[in-house]
Amino acid sequence: MALTLITGAISCRNDKVITFRSLLREMSTPDAITRFPDPAYRLVQFSSYDRRSIHPDSAGWFGNNDYTQFIREEENDGRHEYVMFEADGPGAVVRWWMTFGNLNAFNSYLRVYIDGQDEPVLEGNAPALVGGGLLTPWPLSASVSPLTSSQQRGYDLYLPLPFSKKCKITLENDSVVITPERRRPSIYYSVSARIYAKETRVVSLRKETLVADTLAIAECAGILSGTKADKVTGSAEKEESGLYPPGTSCSFGIRERGRAVSSLSLSLGSPDTSAALSRTMINMTFDGRKTVSVPAEGFFGTGYMINPYRTYFSSADDNGRLAVNHLMPFRDSCEISIVNESDDTLAFSARITTIPYRWDKSSMYFGASWHEYKSIETAGAESTGGTGKHRDINIAELNGKGVYAGDAVTVTNTADAWWGEGDEKIYVDGEAFPSSFGTGTEDYYGYAWSRPEPFSHPFIAQPAGYGNFHPGMTVNMRYRVLDAIPFNESIKADIELWHWVKTTIDYGVTSFYYLLP
To answer: What pLDDT, in 10s, does the model give residues 195-230?
Structure first.
């Protein structure tokens, strides 16, 4: 997929006023995420995670009642509203996910209050407002997978909601009953927001904004979906192809200032596709620093088979062509090697594209890391004969200063049961409690109810879901832009290994990030 650079809007870093339009531009500008955020912000997440999870040593750390949990209940004009999200500004809500357990949950009504006003800026039926296109077209508002029934989908909203002083989001549903014994109906949610430094100027969203900025919304949606992608002026391509025996590599070397790699694509020819994908290594070195060493199956997000899909940052097509479109800048040099570590001679056909890039003191190197937990034992739920002693496994742990930009998992399930009940837990700069605490693996990756149907979206995808309920492979991925997580010293991203039965599985994790030199 070609990348579009918006003239005059390389990022919002030179514009100290955060507006609805500036956030849309940032979301659809590949250059933006390569520079450390200015104005600075921290990412916070409010979700319906089980409130018994208070400390890693607590009995409820792996609690699974991740639904119908709210900050409080309040009465507004005679209405009973449950507060889902509440934060002091300046800030912006940048990602919103929900799903609903039954018809009563589906009939929830949402209100967004900004800067302490009594009247909501936005309101509407929850599925329609978050993922049903009430506020904005696809892909800024989406429900996935479209092959599943409406009550089994994840509802995702990427439309930014800026606020200068305060934002509160409430839910109204007369069916909600919360007692010490039970919570009903099942309402799951996760809302992520940027909280900027206090001196940052943010123009709050108004009711008129969505109507006044229709063209800006359409342009952003078009770029993310690929319908408005244009070839960048000054782009250049290099291609290499041939047969590569075991231990050899297909390599590219660039010695040129003012450039960035904008895409890498690869076709593999092999008598054993699974072995080729798992034992072909993608290595990248920028200005003498090696920041990427990931097998093709994780780097391109296709798993151990070619599973066609398309996101804004990666894809696999029906012909087996794999591609990534992360923007990867460097000062002086870049080396990319595709290494055959299999036992067979492989056919590689590879192409890279570079575009002009202005390196400055805020520019960061792209990085990706990978690890596979091979034949890892799951605890299983006590109700199915397991021990219930689940555990957290690590996706990534980074030291330095940078931005966390997403991750992907490839899971080989071995049982007729769901493997991904586990919540993500992300700690920034040494936090004792994670600032991002989720409600389930499929929820983190934007879908719901462990559904196996494949789906593609600019920021999330499930190319394969064969292993969700049965033995087989599942691939899930999530890319972050406005919800990218800045860190000044360190970041640790964990996810619970929470399988319904006691068994053994393979769990591969790939993370994507940018780091300052």
So the answer is: 999 999 999 999 999 999 999 999 999 999 987 766
Q: Give the pLDDT confidence score for residue 9 in this predicted structure.
A: 36
Strands (DSSP E) along 314-401, which ranges? Answer: 314-316, 322-324, 328-329, 333-340, 346-356, 365-377, 391-399
The burial of 213, by beta-carbon neighbours within 10 Å (0-12 exposed, 13-18 middle, 19 or more buried), is given as middle
How much is the pTM? 0.95
User: Per 3-state DSSP, what percentage of the chain is helix, strand, and coil (rounded to 5)?
Assistant: 10, 45, 45
Q: What is the DSSP string of 254-289?
A: EE-SSEEEEEEEEEEE-S-HHHHHHHEEEEEEETTE
Residue 301 backbone class (left: φ over 0; alpha: ψ -120 to 50; beta: rest) = left
195 and 262 in a single domain? The answer is no
Query: Does 11 have pLDDT greater than 60?
Result: no
* CATH code of 213's domain: 2.60.120.1390
Going from the C-alpha of 517 to that of each of 193, 218, 492, the distances in angstroms are: 27, 36, 19
Q: Domain of residue 196: give its range.
A: 12-225
Burial class (CB in 10 A: 0-12, 13-18, 19+), 112: buried
**Which SS3 state, helix, strand or coil, does residue 417 take?**
coil
Return phi, psi of residue 220, to 5°. Answer: -60, -45
Burial class from Cβ neighbours inside 10 Å (0-12, 13-18, 19+) for residue 374 reads exposed
**The residue to which tokens 């999870």 are assigned:** 53
Instruction: Scan for tokens 């309402």, then name that residue.
Output: 187
> What pLDDT is recorded for position 1?
38
* Total domains in the fold of the chain: 2
Token pair 């998992």 is found at 409
Structure tokens that stand for 486 in this block: 């800045």
Of 47, 162, 73, nearest to 435 by C-alpha is: 47
Tokens of 38: 């200015």
22: its two tokens = 């500036």
In one letter, which amino acid is 239? E
